[in-house]
Amino acid sequence: MTSNKGASTFPVDQLVLCPGDIDLSRSPLAGQLDCETYVLGAFNPGMTQLPNGNLLLIVRVAEALRKPIFDNHVHAIRWDPQEGYVLDAWPLNLADTADPRKFQLHGYGWKVMALTSLSWLLPVEVTPDGLEIVQIHYDKAIAPAGTWQCYGVEDARISKVGDRYLMTTCSVSPERHSTTLYSSDNALDWTFEGIVLDHQNKDMLIFEGLIGGKYWAQTRPLGALFFAYPPDSPWHAGPSINIASSPDALHWMPHIEPHIRPHAGTPSTARIGGGTPPILTEIAGQRGWLSLWHGVEPHEIVGIYRTYWSLLDPEEPWKVIATSHPPLMEANAELTRPLDDLMYVRDVVFSTGIVDAGDHFIVASGEADLACRITHIPKDMFVPSKGGTE
């Protein structure tokens, strides 16, 4: 487990893709904006194994304006179906620009924001251990293709169910902040299947296998209002991880029982959400669906993100049969030290992909919203907490 200083004790723990590895001359935005852009981050990679044995990372590339503020306005990148990529200008006196990734607009009576970057998805093929780049598939990049994702496509999560690859993404637009689904037979050529979850339901993770003949998925609906648990409850109000089932991976019904909830006893999981698609495996002598998820401790603008794990019942996946209250992973400051001049957030690790490699798991994460991190975690590091069933 990592220490508070971010020094790693994992046998393998390294960055495999950084902003400098991205060739923006091959970006979907190349040549379309009369201003300079740069890679704010190449991070939060979905991961799966290709038929040839290599691993595939589908990386979120956040392409940002080098100077979003000029002419007394702050600017956002937007995809338009007639004009392609355009800039929208907002008067500075209407905007809060404290966060370099986005700005909040005043005067609506509720929270409204726009982005100084636009995200697209880049498939990156790596070796079976995840540690070396084999090929960057610029020709397979996934970019906005409709008004429902005019502010970008974010955070791919890939599950292989039978012979079919399913990829959920977040599509961002003024219409809605939705979950969109893509499918593939080879994990490189993707077909858009449509919107499957509506406004602000994020971090959708499809289980890698059917249960009772149905598809299952973890979801995380957001909102501005949550109702309080009783004062002596082991949980507290806030975003939680829910679970849903589907006959076809397109139409989802929320399960009536709760799933993974934030713990009242620690600020480290004040806000939680999904991480890696659940895979069927064995942990500490128990077989079940392994779910890595993130917990956020409030701190400054973004918070401190850590990775936790839970093992779910193989037949009744809404039930947690084992978990560990200490974090499995934390941000590793040593990894990003060479990129210090590019850092804009710290204390963030966001695990987004997992592959079973026998005696260990290969885990893909976004590090500091900046780069892609690969960690080999031995299976004997998954030690359940006593009484840890939530």
Walkthrough of the structure:
- With 390 residues, the chain is mainly β.
- The chain has one domain: Glycosyl hydrolase domain, family 43 (Tachylectin-2, Chain A).
- Helix content is 1%, strand content 47%.
- 44% of the residues are buried.
Core attributes:
single chain; 390 residues; mainly beta; Tachylectin-2, Chain A; five-stranded antiparallel β-sheet; four-stranded antiparallel β-sheet; 1 helix; 27 strands; 47% strand; globular; disordered N terminus; hydrolase; Mannoside_phosphorylase; transferase
Layout of SSEs?
Elements: E1 12-17, E2 37-49, E3 55-65, E4 69-70, E5 73-80, E6 84-91, E7 95-96, E8 102-105, E9 112-115, E10 117-126, E11 133-136, E12 152-161, E13 164-172, E14 177-184, E15 191-197, E16 201-206, E17 215-221, E18 242-246, E19 253-254, E20 271-274, E21 279-283, E22 286-297, E23 304-312, E24 320-323, H1 333-336, E25 349-356, E26 360-367, E27 371-378
Antiparallel strand pairs: 1-27, 2-3, 3-10, 4-5, 5-6, 7-8, 8-9, 10-11, 12-13, 13-14, 14-15, 16-17, 17-18, 18-19, 20-22, 21-22, 22-23, 23-24, 25-26, 26-27
Pfam families: Glyco_hydro_130
Keywords: Glycosidase, Glycosyltransferase, Hydrolase, Transferase
InterPro entries: Glyco_hydro_beta-prop_sf, Mannoside_phosphorylase
